[in-house]
Write a structure and sequence with these properties.
The complex is a heterodimer of chains A (283) and B (263). Chain A is mostly helical and 283 residues long. Helix content of chain A is 71%, strand content 0%. Chain A has one domain: MetI-like fold, CATH 1.10.3720. With 263 residues, chain B is an alpha/beta fold. Chain B contains 9 helices and 10 strands. The chains are: A mainly alpha (283), B alpha/beta (263). Chains A and B meet through helix 7 and helix 8 of A and strand 6, helix 2, helix 4 and helix 5 of B.
């Protein structure tokens, strides 16, 4: 009996379909989605320019795109309320990533406890379910009473907002570990700890990363609120103080920067997922 | 010679309710290391439960599972398992999957990779080492799964329909492969299958399970697998009346149980 090797899934046979239809002279390829989105953005910017240049809306309420661009430039160079844009962004990022570190350090073990043990689930479930629906603004004052107006209270509030998504997705990932995967390891003599380390953790990783991405979103929206109170730097603080002086172009510039940073987060998180858990989308 | 034995094993899933019909009742089964035992039976006859008991994934409600006379409490490296859905770890390469049992045992990385490489050679996949699981075909995955099972140096190889998800052509090639692995590695094999022909081709002994409660209805010794190993072609093995008679007999045995249920 010869033991020849199975050939790998081959790609030599192109699936028949739209691709192979004979091309006609008039065939139009569909407009790429990115182009449609780009056109939308351009159209909105144009409307915005028109509205402000024809004075439809007072510059106090809606400064022109050019004014916002200039505000961005001056923010980057000279800054606003004693700090440059980079310093504001830096202060905010420090809080976000400080909080993320805390949330991951607490949330991942918490999620594992919920996913693997009855006791853990019994203890943590009510806490998570209590925390999850609360708007961070509701407990911000309490956290300030407890931790003061320094960095600790800001990081704590953001971390609290990040915790539920991280705990819950970790627990989901742990629970969805294939029982065959666990049994295979047990049959090879793995201890409970080895099963956790070598099977459950890697198998929950895609879900943990999804949770982290959701947590970043939640944290980012809590950040602005946290910086409204007794901050001296940060994007939320910058917007808030600009609003108090009706410097609307800085307000809008701040919003644009927040959106841009969030967009970069999202892209980075997706790249990280593709790099760390390439199997998650392939199986 | 090592022996895996199930002694008067009964399994109830509702452990508290002793009136609940057992999934398996009073199973007595011995598998020696030179045997290839194939368990066949219709769905619901407890085939997979039998394998789970032998592997130690579930505990017997009464009776015991022993290796060489010593009762086993749970899964162990002496009984490796091959799953229908290969159960390879997608976050590891083929090579690291095969090396995984050695990793658990604390074998140093260079040594375990070397041993894994030689196992991949043995299952005919020398070039698959660095490929990811999702890049392999179904048949290749099962070969990796079998290499991984062999890495723990088991006395017994327990296989739950390992070829069930493969296309007919790959399946018949893999049957020859399984026989070859079994013969060369000197493990006792327990294989669960739905296919009567597969049972006839691979087994040294066929166990027919009957449902409600799951019990051994019949045991039949066969030798067609040995012919396949010596290079006799599939067609030649299938054609003699003895093969077809046994095929009919097994079909009737499994079918009889169906009618028993209907009555």
């Amino acid at each position: 009996m010869s033991l020849s090797i199975e050939s790998a899934p081959s790609t030599t046979h192109q699936p028949r379909g739209i691709v192979e239809q004979p091309e006609r002279g008039t065939t139009r390829s569909p407009l790429p989605l990115a182009w449609i989105s780009l056109a939308t953005i351009v159209a909105l910017l144009a409307l915005w320019s028109l509205a402000s240049s024809y004075g439809l809306v007072s510059a106090l309420f809606l400064p022109s795109p050019l004014a916002v661009y200039k505000a961005l430039q001056s923010l980057a160079v000279t800054g606003f309320v004693d700090a440059t844009l980079a310093q504001h962004v830096g202060a905010s990022l420090l809080r976000i990533f400080g909080a993320l570190a805390v949330a991951i350090l607490l949330g991942v073990p918490g999620g594992i406890a919920i996913g693997t043990s009855r006791l853990g689930k019994g203890i943590l479930d009510p806490i998570v379910e209590f925390l999850r629906p609360l708007p961070p603004l509701a407990y911000l004052p309490l956290v300030i009473i407890w931790l003061g107006i320094g960095e600790a209270s800001k990081i704590a509030v953001i971390a609290l907002a990040m915790l539920p998504p991280i705990i819950l997705s970790t627990a989901t990932g742990v629970k969805s570990t294939s029982s065959d995967h666990i049994n295979a390891a047990r049959a090879f003599g793995a201890s409970r700890l080895q099963v956790l380390r070598h099977v459950i953790l890697p198998s929950a990783l895609p879900s943990v990363l999804t949770g982290t991405r959701i947590a970043l979103g939640a944290g980012w929206s809590t950040l602005v609120a946290a910086e409204l109170v007794a901050a001296t730097r940060g994007l939320g603080f910058m917007i808030q103080s600009a609003a108090q002086f009706l410097v609307t172009d800085v307000v809008i510039a701040g919003i644009v920067v927040i959106a841009a940073v969030a967009f970069v987060f999202e892209i980075t998180a997706r790249l990280l997922e593709r790099w760390l858990v390439p199997w998650a989308t392939r199986r | 010679m090592s022996v895996l034995s199930l002694e008067k094993v009964t399994l109830r899933y509702a452990a508290s309710d002793s009136r609940a019909a057992p999934v398996l009742a009073s199973i007595d089964l011995k598998i020696a290391r030179d045997e290839f035992v194939v368990v066949i039976g219709r769905s619901g006859s407890g085939k997979t439960s039998l394998l789970n008991l032998a592997a130690g994934f579930v505990a017997a409600s009464s009776g015991q599972v022993c290796v060489d006379g010593r009762p086993v409490a749970g899964p162990g490296a002496d009984r490796a398992v091959v799953f229908q859905d290969d159960a390879l770890y997608p976050w590891l390469t083929a090579l690291d999957n095969v090396a995984f049992p050695l990793h658990l045992r604390g074998v140093a990385r260079p040594e375990r990779l070397e041993r894994a490489r030689s196992l991949l050679n043995r299952v005919g996949l020398p070039d698959a080492a660095d490929r990811h699981v999702w890049e392999l075909s179904g048949g290749m995955r099962q070969r990796v799964g079998i290499a991984r099972a062999l890495a723990s140096d088991p006395k017994f190889l327990l296989m739950d329909e390992p070829l069930g998800a493969l296309d007919a052509l790959t399946r018949s090639r893999m049957q020859g492969f399984l026989l070859d692995v079994w013969q060369k590695s000197g493990v006792g094999a327990l294989l669960i299958t739905h296919s009567i022909e597969e049972a006839l081709l691979l087994a040294t002994r066929i166990i027919v399970l009957a449902p409600n409660p799951g019990r051994i209805a019949s045991e039949i010794a066969t030798t067609f697998g040995r012919d396949l190993l010596t290079g006799v072609s599939l067609a030649e093995i299938r054609s003699p009346p003895a093969f077809r008679r046994l095929h009919d007999e097994l079909t009737a045995l499994i079918h009889a149980e169906d009618e028993g249920i209907a009555a």
